[in-house]
Amino acid sequence: MPLEIYRRHNPARCNSTDSKECQNKKRPCPIWIRGTAADGGYLREPVGTRDWTKADDLRREWEVTGRAPTPAVEKRITIDNWKDQFLQNAEAENLSEETIRKYKLLFKRLMEFADEKGVRFVSELDLSNLEAFRNTWKDGPLSKSKKQERLRSLFRYAVAHKWINENPALLLKKIKVDPAEKLPFDDKEMEKILKAARKVGPETYAFVLTMRFSGLRISDVCTLNVSSLEGNHLELRTIKTGSKVKVLLPDVVVQSLNTIEKVSPKYFFWSGNGKLSSITELWRSRRLRPTFKAAGIKDAHPHRFRHTFATKLLIQGVPIGMVATLLGNSVRIVEKHYSSWTKARQKALDEAVTRANGYGDIEPVVVAS
């Protein structure tokens, strides 16, 4: 039986029965080879590529030489060199400090795992190794899912530089994450939180007010520059996305910011020394967590201030595009995270139109029978 190539279709990904074509155009099913080998034995194994033309070239070479060809890889590179080049490129692309920190941590964990397994080169990290590496993660489903996306980015970089032929991280099955509803604080909860924050001290009170009425992430409030406050407007670029944000603050927030004893001449809540992750964790665990506990609010976390800011705007009928601008996000992200609140916004708009038009008093048309 001559050697032939065929696609080994995965019923979970496509329903194709064709030996060549695959319904999954983005990532076709793998190609295998079968037939009688040069030594007379039966051969049946993957060829190592999903490209039909390349697979057919490998088949021809196999028939001529009588042995399996090795797909060409330009050069072997160590995991350590991979890390250095990736991180240098991330800094050149001006990725945020927090994003780069997460990549550094992922590389650290990956290198520790590789050392235990005796793996030195990028090309040695196959699917089995990545599955075993993922099994060491102790995070929750959402954190695992985001970490897996970062892992795919690392290998995508390696593929682009032709250090490996395929991205094995793409073969990792998707981690199931239950969609979490973006819950804001209601008015009573906010009242309790503000009362508790006032008792903690003016600095904590100003911090909470700023989070609630600016919609900023905790990292952006921690590093809030004094110069970013111009009158009642707060203007800055967010750390996570680099988006320029300008928000109008209520008088009480501006007054609180201007009257607190600043940690440094440059920042409201930060000395300017130390890592951003450290100051963020300090505010989260030593200031806000005790405040939430004193207020008696369960499942409270700083990001709910941002959800409160967004949902208040949506319910009042502010267009999604404007809300996205104020949050420093895209419209798609706002629609994804706040879909239930955009429905509430539409209901509020319908009720407002009904009240304004007063068309309930108009007599309907009577059709003569």
Structure explained in plain terms:
The protein is mainly α and 369 residues long. The protein has 3 domains: 4-65; 79-171, Tyrosine recombinase, N-terminal domain (DNA polymerase, domain 1, Orthogonal Bundle), CATH 1.10.150; 187-352, hpI Integrase, Chain A, CATH 1.10.443. Helices cover 50% and strands 7% of the residues. It is built from 14 helices and 6 strands. A 3-stranded antiparallel β-sheet has the order 1-2-3, with helices on one face. The protein has a 3-stranded antiparallel β-sheet with strand order 4-5-6. A hairpin with a 2-residue loop joins strand 4 and strand 5 (233-237). Helix 2 (79-92) runs antiparallel to helix 3 (97-117), helix 6 runs antiparallel to helix 7 (202-214) and helix 12 (320-327) crosses helix 13. The longest helix has 21 residues, at 97-117. It is extended. It starts with a strand and ends in a 12-residue tail after the last helix.
Q: Topology of this protein?
A:
Blueprint: E1 4-7, E2 31-36, E3 42-46, H1 52-65, H2 79-92, H3 97-117, H4 127-134, H5 141-160, H6 187-200, H7 202-214, H8 218-222, E4 229-230, E5 233-237, E6 244-248, H9 251-259, H10 276-295, H11 303-315, H12 320-327, H13 331-337, H14 339-357
Antiparallel strand pairs: 1-2, 2-3, 4-5, 5-6
Helix pairs in contact: 2-3, 6-7, 6-10, 7-9, 7-11, 12-13
